[in-house]
Structure formats: C-alpha cells, structure tokens
Amino acid sequence: MATSANGYFEREVLVQAGPLICATTLALTAAFLGIVGIASGNAGGLVGRLPVYVLAGSVGFVAALLAAEHSEYYGREALVTATCVGIVGFVMIGLGTEGVVYGLTNPDAVVASHLSAYLLSAAMIASGLGYWTVRNWRDVTRVMNKSGL
Questions:
Q1: Is residue 75 within 8 Å of residue 10, measured between CB atoms?
Q2: DSSP letter at 10?
Q3: Measured distance CA(60)–CA(64) in Å, rounded
Q4: What is the torsional sign of CA 117, 114, 36, 30?
Q5: What average pLDDT does range 90-100 have in this prediction?
Q6: 40 φ, ψ (degrees, to nearest 5)
C-alpha cells in the first residue's frame, strides 16, 4: 500500500508514481482530444500521418517482442504481450498526435468550451484506475476468475 504505518503517503511512493501518473494523464488527455478531433471531422491530414503511426506501432511490437523473449515470458505469452504493446502504441501515438494537432489548430474549441478540463479529469481518473489495477493485479485477476469474466 502507498501509506506508512501512520496513514500518511510515503514520499518514495509519490516520487515514483507521481511522474508516471502525470505522464499517463497527459498522454490520455491528448488521446481523448484526438478522438474528439477525429469524431468532429477536424483531423485534416490524418491519412498522410497514418503510415507514421503504423510504423510507431510496429517498432513498439518488435521492441516488446525482444524484451519479452529475454524475460520471464516466452513463446505465445511473448507474442500476445508484444501484440498488445504494438496495438496500444499505435492507438496512443496516433490518437495522441491527432489530439495535439487538433488542439493546436482549434484552440478555441478546446479552451473556450472547457473541453480540456473535462478530458484532463477523465484522463486523471483513468490513470489512477490503471495505476491501482497494476498495483493490485493479483486481486483483479482473482475477482475476474471467480466471476467468470
């Protein structure tokens, strides 16, 4: 747990988790903004940037495959892990970049409507839930196995 015996947050946990949660929150905010940009039809040039996103996803796939093969994962587990990393990398880099492009080309739509505050809030909640899920993975999988999910 992230608290000490007296209930206060430990400084080391905050130093380690803080930057990770901030970076994840910013990346998710950009990705959410990318979804808004694509859904609103304001993603001009997306088709031209798509090959770069595919390349980034494939680099992530190969890097994860090499890392998994030299760790505790091998065979099918390594392939599944690398595939997930490649897909998530493609989606996050693609949507994140589109979100930055949308935010730079349509700043009024992002700032004036307070859209950025809502998306930042959603991203912060998702980052917190993701962090908690990773830290409590055994409990999550145990509950999922019991419920038949």
A1: no
A2: P
A3: 6
A4: negative
A5: 95
A6: -85, -5
Question: Predicted confidence band at 143 (pLDDT cuts at 50, 70, 90)?
Answer: confident
Query: 9 — phi, psi (to 5°)?
Result: -65, 140
Percent share of the chain, pLDDT over 90? 49
Separation in Å, CA 58 to CA 87, 102, 134: 8, 24, 24
Task: Dump pLDDT digits (tens) for 18-54.
Answer: 888 899 999 999 999 999 999 998 888 899 999 999 9
| Number of residues in the chain | 149
Tokens at residue 11, please?
A: 């400084």
HSE-up of residue 146 (Cα within 13 Å, Cβ side): 6
